[in-house]
Amino acid sequence: MAAPMLSSAPVTDLLPIIPELVVVAGAFALLILDVFLDARRRVVTHGLTLVVLAIALVLLVTHVGWDAAGARTVFNGMFVRDQLADVIKAAIVLVSGLSLVYGWPYLRERNLYPGEFPVLVLFASAGMMMLASAGSLVMVYLGLELLSLCSYALVGMNRDNGLATEAAMKYIVLGSIASGLLLYGMSLVYGATGSLELSQINAAIAGIADRPMLLTGMVFMVCGIAFKLGAAPFHMWLPDVYQGAPTPITLFISAGPKLAAFAMAYRVLEQGVGPTSPQWQLLLAGLAALSLIIGNVVAIAQRNLKRMLAYSTVSHMGFLLLGLAGGGPEGYAAALFYGITYALMSAASFGAILVLSRRGFEAEMIDDFKGLSSRSPWMAGMVLCVMASLAGVPPFLGFWAKLVVLRAALNGDLMWLALLAVVCAVIGAFYYLRVVKVMYFDEPVGALPAPRAGKVVPFLFGVNALGLLVLGLAWNPLMTWCKAAFGL
Length: 488
Prior knowledge:
The protein has 488 residues and is mainly α. Helix content is 72%, strand content 1%. It has a two-stranded antiparallel ribbon with strand order 1-2. The chain starts with 17 loop residues before the first helix and ends with a helix.
C-alpha cells in the first residue's frame, strides 16, 4: 500500500528550490567572473559570494517559494521543502558565510585564495542544502557527493604543503570507502523494498519478508552516516584533516557538514527505514558511547589545538547521537538544537585560532595561548567564553545543548548512556579548561605578533563568542525554532 504523498508541485515549479538555484547560479556566475579578475581584485568574488549566501538566507528565513503550513515536494518527491529543511539550510548558509569572513585575511596573507575557493564553498553549500531536503536515496547521494568532492578539493587547496596534501589524500580514500558503504547499503534497501523514495520505503517495510537484506542495508547506511558525522570508530580522518587543512577550511568542514549529516541521518533513518528504529537506535547508542569515550579520552593527550578540537568533535557528535538514539520528535529536536549549537561553537573555536594567526605564526598549539590574558585581556575573555561553552559550563549555550540531549536519552530509556555522557562531559572539561589555564596562569612565551590590520574578523569573533553567552541566557527561542521543525 503506497504511503500518503505530500502535496507535490509540478516539475516545472521551481519556486520551492529557489534558494538552491540562487546558490548554484551564483557559483557558476562567480566561476565565469573570476576569469576576468586578477588576484588583487579577488575581493570582488569574495564579497559577491557573501551576497549570494545572504540572499539565500533571506529566502529561507522568509519561506519564499512555499507555504510554511505544509511541506512541498518537487521532482516526483525527490526534493522536500519543509520547516525542518529551512531551519537546517538557514544554519548551514549562516556558518558558511561565517567561514568566508573568518578566512579571508588568513588566506589572503598566505596567497591561498584561488578563484575556485568561493565557488567550491558555494557548491558544497548547495550539496548540504540538497541533503537537508532529500526525499529520495538518489538525492541523498547526489547531495553527499557534491559536498564531499568539494570538501576534498578545499582540504588539498594548499598544494605546496605536505601536511595538507597528506590530509586530502586520507580524506579522499576514507571518504570514498564511506561513500561506498553508504551506496551499498542503499542498494540493499532498494532491493528489499523496491523503491528509492524515502516515504515509499517507509511504507513498504511492514510487508517485507526479506528482513535480513533490509537490516544489512540499514547497518551499512548507518556506517556511512557515522563517517560523515565523524563518530567513532569512523573518526580516523578527523584529526589529520583538521590539522592538515588550512584553518578556514577546517572551520568550514567542521560546522556546516555536521548539520548536513544530521539531516541525512534523520531523512534516511527516520523517514526512510523508520520501522526498523529499534535496531538503528541501538546502533546509534553504541556509536554515541564509543564517540564519547574515545573523543574525550584521546583529546586529553593532544597538544595541537586543532587536533584537540578534532577529538572534541568526536565527543560532540556522541552527544548529538544521544538525541537521535533517544528518538521521537523531542529527541530529534534536541539533536538539531545540539547540531546548531555545535556549529556556532566550532566556528568560534577555530575563529580564535584565525584571529591570533599571522603570516609565519599559525597559533595552532595550546602553548601559543600562554599568557594571553596579560597580552590581550579581551581576546582571552572571548576564548574563555568559547571554551566554557564547549565544556558545557552554565549559563553558556553549550550547557543547555547538553542538557536537552541528555533529557532525550532519558526519555528514550537510555539511562546508561546518559550517565556515561555525564561522566565523559566531566572528563572533557579538563582539556577545555587547560586552554583557560595556560591563558590566565602561564607566563607568555615570546612577543605578541603585530596586531592584525583589519578589524572585521576580531569583531566577528567577539560577536560569535559573546553570542554563545547571550544565546545561553535566552536559548528558548532557538529551541522553539528547532521544535517547530518537527511539529512540536
